[in-house]
Amino acid sequence: MANTVLCKKFNKELEALDRAPLPGAKGQEVLQTVSKQAWQEWQLLQTMMINEKQLNLMLPESRKYVMEQMDKFFNNEPTDKLSGYVDPNDIVEL
After folding, report:
1. How far lies 31's CA from each of 35, 56, 62, 80, in Å?
2. More confident residue, 55 or 86
3. Which distant-in-sequence residues (6+ apart) come within 8 Å of 82 by Cβ?
4. How open is the CA angle 48-53-54, to the nearest 5 degrees?
5. Is the pLDDT of residue 79 over 80?
């Protein structure tokens, strides 16, 4: 049976990550409080943010921005909207 974690994003027991996805204390916090499902959803959103906002993760301010958005995402707070993204659930068929 896979390890589980009480995921703060979904507020229920879900499959845990196999290892810390980030170095240091932040990685350990994510490992202990974020499920594999939530991490995968964050990775999709993070990729869209990096691409749309043309972030350079070599720059400290870009990394800081991504980490702030990650914290908001996992705490169920609103993250920055992506202007080019259309949620498939919002598409109205004619």
Report:
1. 8, 25, 23, 24
2. 55
3. 48, 49, 52
4. 95
5. yes
